[in-house]
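Worked example 2:
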Amino acid sequence: MLHTNKRRKFEMLVENANRCNLCTRMCGRKKVLSERNGNIDSNTFIHLYSSVCKIIPDRCKYSININMNHPKGRELIKRLVAQADVVVENFTPGTMDKWGIDVVVCGSQKALMLPPGLSFVALNDKAWTFVERSNMPKFYFDFKKELKSAKKNQSSYTPGISLFVGLRESLKMIREEGLEAVFRRHQRLAEATRAAVKALGLELYAPDSPSNAVTAVKIPSGIDGEKLKDLFFEKFGITVAEGQDRAKGKIVRIAHLGYYEKLDMVMVISALEMLLREMGYAFELGTGVRAAEVVLME
C-alpha cells in the first residue's frame, strides 16, 4: 500500500456504496461510531475516515465497499479522489483512468479461483512519482525493486510456483468464456440468489445496492446464525461465510465469483431451505429454489 504525504490511506472493497456499516474515528483510547440506519452520508464518511488516517495511520483498517455501477458509488469515488493524493483500490470491472484510480490491487483469491498467496498491483504514472520519491522504510512493498525484477521476467523473492501454474489455468478459463460473459454469469447467479432470498421471506443485508460478487442474507429472528453456517458444511459440505464484527451471527454470505454455475446456486438455496426448516423457520419448501430457477432459466 502507498501512504500519501498527508498520511491518508483509503482501502476499498467491492460491494455496496450506500451501506457503510462502520466508520470510526479513534482518538487515544476513545472510539466514536457514526451511523445512520446502516448508512453514512459521504460528508460524514470522508471526515471520519480521513481523520482516522491522519491521527493514527497505522490503524487505518476500516473500509468502505463501493459498487462502481451505482451512481452513489461513482459520486463517492470522485469525492475521495478529490481529497486524496493517492487512492488505493481493490479492483472491480472498469478502468483506472475512467475512475481516477492510481493504484489497483488484487489478490489471487479474488475471483481468480485460487487460494490466497499471490497479489497483483498496477500503478499509473502519478503513483510511480510517489514511488520514486518515497523514503519510507519498506521491504516486500518495494515497487522499484519489483519493477527491476519484472523487467528481467523474474520476481524479487521466491515465488509460489504452484499458484502461478494455477493462475495460468484460471486466466485460460476466463479468456475462453470471455470477460463480459463472466460478468454476466456472476450477475445472473446473484440475481437468482436474491430472488430466492426474497421468496423465502428473508432480507438482504444490502437491499438498495446489492453486490453481484456475494449475497449477504439476514438470519431470521430466533435462528442461530453461527450454527446455521456450521450446519451448511457439516451436513452438505457447503462453505458459506458468516458476518464479521457486529454482523457476526446475524448474516450468512453466499459467494458468486469464480467457477460457480447455475446448479451451485440451486444447491445452496436448497440447502438453506432444508436447514432453515430444520431450525424452525416457517415457509413452504421449494419456494426459494423455484424463484432461483425462474431467474436462471430466463
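Confidence is low (pLDDT under 50) at residues 1-64. The longest helix spans residues 179-199.
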